[in-house]
Protein 1
Amino acid sequence: MIVSICLLVFFGCGLNFAQPGDESYVSKTEFDALKEKLENLETKLRDTEIRQINSDSQIAELKNQEKLQAIETRLQDSETRLNNSENQIMDLRKKERTKVMFSAAAGGRGAIGPFKTDTTLIYRAVITNIGGAYSPSTGIFTAPVAGVYYFTLFHHTGKPYGTVLYLYKNNQQVIMTQNHKAVHETAHNGGNAVFLQLQPGDQVYVRMTANSFIWGGNYHTTFSGFLVSQV
Ligand SMILES: *[C@@H]1O[C@H](CO)[C@@H](O)[C@H](O)[C@H]1NC(C)=O
């Protein structure tokens, strides 16, 4: 009974298939070939899909890399600007901290000079020497930093000699103060001042010409200077 049902089903189904000779008949060989083609196509499709996915993710990765690079560039720019700002702040602080000021008087009890040759005046009585740029042993001021400095020189003198003082920048005479020799005059004061733009190491000092003299006592005769502004 079971066997006959199975046979019926088998033949029943078989009746629905095309038979050899029918137009729509597909032989086993052709079927296998078609199946293989289909499988190949499926494989290709899957490959294409995989490649598409790979491309998509590569594009996304590239875009991320571009974004990352842009961010990195901006970060570097910021860092550079930050460094510049920090350096500027440090420079400004350093400039602010650099204080240079001195005042010194000729010292002694009375006349200094006259001498037979031009002589660098050594103002030995230091009143102020912030930054230590003035040397009371040589009378020479040496600029520690580039900038504009202001110098003054005052002298007290009297008969019977004249007085000629020159303020020097390195080997160059810049300004002078003078008192003419006069027999009947009593004491005089004279002075002068100048703004000088100096480089580090430039030297400023006062020289008294031959046969001049100044009065050293009582702080009459002074040499002063200070850094106005770094340039
Ligand atoms: C900024 O300064 C730091 C510390 O001095 C340094 O390591 C860094 O390379 C500097 N960056 C740039 C972009 O100059």
Protein 2
Amino acid sequence: MKKEYIAPNIERNYAGNLNKYGAKSVVRHIDNIDGVPVKELLGKYGSPLIVFSENTLRKRYRRLQDTMNMHYPHLQQAWSYKTNYLGAICSIYHQEGAWAEVVSGMEYDMARALGMPASQIIFNGPGKREHELQKAITEGAKLHIDHLDELYLIEKIAKKEEETPQVAIRVNMETGIHPAWSRFGFNYENGEAFRAIQRLLSGATMNLIGLHTHIGTFILDARAYYYAAKALLDLAQKVYEELGIAVEYIDLGGGFASQNTLLGSYTPGEFASPSLEQYAAAIGEAFNESPFAAQHKPMLILETGRALIDEAGSTLSTVLGKKNLPTGERAVILDAGVNTTITAWWYKLKVSPTRAFPGAYQNTVFYGPLCMNIDVIRAAVPFPDLHTGEAVVLSPTGAYNNTQWMQFIEYRPAIVLISESGNPELIRQRENLEDVIVREQIPNRLKDF
Ligand SMILES: *Cc1c(COP(=O)(O)O)cnc(C)c1O
């Protein structure tokens, strides 16, 4: 057989040293997802293609459940819909026992449509509308109150409907994370959260059943959760002592980091991100020190999103073409861009070839198919010379991509779930023109041209 031609290139040799990206890169190939060949998946469902591993989804969920329970045995997880609200994905988490955590009326409707009882839906979010609250209250959902105007609105609806809403107060605080997220809920340090609770109880229209915080996202210091848990448990103790109410749960929100590598970071995510065990240990420590937890054993709720799902998702993409840039770098144009994979704007996504390469590496920029200069999937990574038409795997891409994806000039790709027995199952069809224009109306006078 004739040997394949490999174009020569010259690259400075930094033998034994770290390169300027922090480590000597070795590009490993991925030719299957959970045993199903990438080629087969692309042949059957088209390119690009988003693929989820059911095995990884369930394993990560159970891992968090088991690890947390070793430190404090009253964990209830609530799946953060905005991280990924595909019906099949949410259903897997609900099968595992997760409640739903929703941040908008749309997400609330999604959870109800999947069959979640309202009593297992936590309604967070800063922008709940009156009709959405009305529905959630009459159905019996758990409302997490973000600001005073929302509290007044809930009071008004409760009186009108003669209902007693089940509510928690959202609290923001200093946990050593910068910048501290202060936009959600009431502040802890200046006493605003306690005053909001006093106001809530004086209205005598709702049941205060929990305290909630969401301190941020991609929190790289597990210790922040110790401080967050401690603050909410101290607040719970104060509410119990001074107002006579023992809350049923402490909800620490989401924010655990996935194994992705942040764009600004030299340290790969596998090393920079705390493990689920480290987060659990920090939270467990605060609970085990707390007199409130010792006496009342409140339920601990975690709304972990990206750390559960990111590694379960990959995006398969095909090389449309290549060119050389004036910088000396190679450019590769992929059929998946930031329209399907918006987290390329925050992470150094891993780009993997789908076969082994004998050739040398050249610094390569991976672009998507969009007419925007910022459609960059991965900048400046040493990479072998791909051929037009061959596939690459982008990973991890399981979190936030198919909720934040954008329509811009392309149809959205199909999404496939690999079952635990290794069967690919289509969970979202590739879009067509009808999907894009079905809601439009063209006035008759514009139809003639
Ligand atoms: C987004 C969000 C989550 C999930 O956050 P991750 O960073 O994905 O873990 C959980 N709770 C609330 C209230 C959120 O807004």
